[in-house]
Amino acid sequence: MKMVSCPMISKRRCLSRAFVTMVTATAFVFVVANITPASCLSGSLRSRIQSLRTTLHPPAGDEFPGVERDALLKRLVSLGRSFSQKPPSLDSPATFHRRHPSEIVPGCTSAVVVSASLGSSNVLSVTGSSDAFLSSGLLAAVCLLLEGLPARDVVEMDDTESIAEYLGLRSVLTVGRMDGVENIVRTVQRQTRALLCTDFDPAATSQEKFSCKLPRVAMLLSGGVDSAVAMHLLLRTNTHEVHAYYLKIWLEDELSHLNACPWEDDMAVCTRLCAEAGVPLRVLSLQEEYRDTVLRYTVEESGKGRTPNPDVACNRRVKFGVFLDHLDALPAEESYDRVASGHYAEVVRDPDGTCRLRQAKDAVKDQTYFLSTLSQRQLQRVIFPLGTYPKAEVRALAQKFGLANAQRPDSQGLCFLGKVRFEDFLQNYLGTNPGNIVDAGTGNVVGRHRGMWFHTVGQRKGLGTVLDPKVGCDGPWYVVAKDPQHNVVFVSNKYNEGDFKRARSGKYTSTILCNYVLISISIFFLSLHVEDFDVENIHWISGRPDPRLFTTISSETPSSACHVTMKIRHGPNMALGTLDLLSPAGDTGRVRLDAEDGGLAPGQFVAFYLPDAEGIGECLGAGVIGERHWEAFIETMRMQRGEEKDDQLGIVG
After folding, report:
1. What positions does the domain tRNA-specific 2-thiouridylase MnmA-like central occupy (predicted)?
2. Residue of 314, 355, 562, 619 marked active site
3. Could you confirm whether domain 214-400 is CATH 3.40.50.620?
4. Known catalytic residue at 562
5. 6 a catalytic residue
């Protein structure tokens, strides 16, 4: 059967096709025309971008969708061919004042080589080559934009990642080539800065000519999103020479039987991130140092029934401790000026050289609690690029930068454990040591624990498996205290009822009451909902108690206390209270909280803050919660039973 075309249908198809073409072309031109170069770019550069954009995107004709894209690619290739045939005039040694040696641009899809040159008036010229015509076209575009500009204008550009966007190239370039344009510009900026800070001497050797170096930064890279974005923010400032370090602290020899080594995935991510960014990556094993410091501290404190914080110890003793010592031991030509990390915090540097640790803008992610024991020496060497960024924006930047780990979830738990449960870790090093679980309200034994280090104050989850089934239905039960001397864990199911609620107090008493239950009730709430506690080993970041806290600071014990803002654990919640220093050095004190807290435990850190007008606090230091409230609880129970201090604690059977 012969098919007969309908003129009306054909006409409609043509009109429809023409309409789609018109809309597509109009939208394409609209998008290109409305991407305006940022005001932070010089007027001359903005004018050049607009001119080159017009060259690459002439007024749309009657092409079908896709034709304009192909035409743009052809224009870029043609630009690359022309650039290869007619390199800039400053390629001649007789016409430039100083020239940087050619370098391969990192992170480009093709091999791109570039060299910046300065004329006698510090006017910039760029030469280069590529093994692909499209990359040559992109290189030519950069050269056309920067050719003849004042060198300092080029160095001070801070919107380099958007140049390809301004030129309307997103529709035809892969993410890799888009990044390649930025990398070309950044390489030229770095070379230009080196030329500007070099006192030119025609007789000098190549090494002497380019001896002016940017400050070198050792970037701690973990494989997570935060440290990856922090590294890219540093790179985009063009003010540092960045080298990445991955610290290997996973103890695979001791813990490999518990789980697969998590650092293998982290290392793969770090390797890819650095390859794409053109950043050298070094792997440094600090396993032995970590074992001798953080691991030993964690195991010893847990064995005493206390609550350690390995993250606080790791920052002070490893990441900004032995790692800094390692960097300082390097030869002078390999030394580093700063260490950077992805922590959410800010370092404020005063004119006199004093460094102050300030909370991050994101209160939920703020990590000054974990950094509260750093010293002045350590703070003077660190950079925290994420201090002013909320977490949501960091995630958005990871997408914008096209990072390989942009979708990677945040890590949970301790950095050296990976997926290993903390309970399994403790059992591996401390084993088990069964003991009684005692009801703090009655003195009755209500269960058996496998080791008091498996339980923390305020714990509810997991108690059901170690309590007598007969009392399980009387819950919920909470851990309220531990007696390390007699291996006893105290619990209660009267968290917020009647006399327990009324019995909350900040004062401890050893008065023997006739009613045993009232004693137990009172002491229970002193342990679970205490308002005052002792603080030991207080570390002040400035080296001494901050005078801004106290009206009088004398060489003797301060006679007056101060009101202070605190963090008792990591998170956005702040506590208010009074701090009274008990020693001339200010390293011990007593805190009285304005409101009760339900989870204080010996060994836990408490960080002190001084809020500013914006409500963002400066972290002044931290101390360790002492055992006074536990000792008062246990001693009162002994006295009620009429026992000597060192006798075995009597428990009602």
Report:
1. 423-492
2. 314
3. yes
4. no
5. no
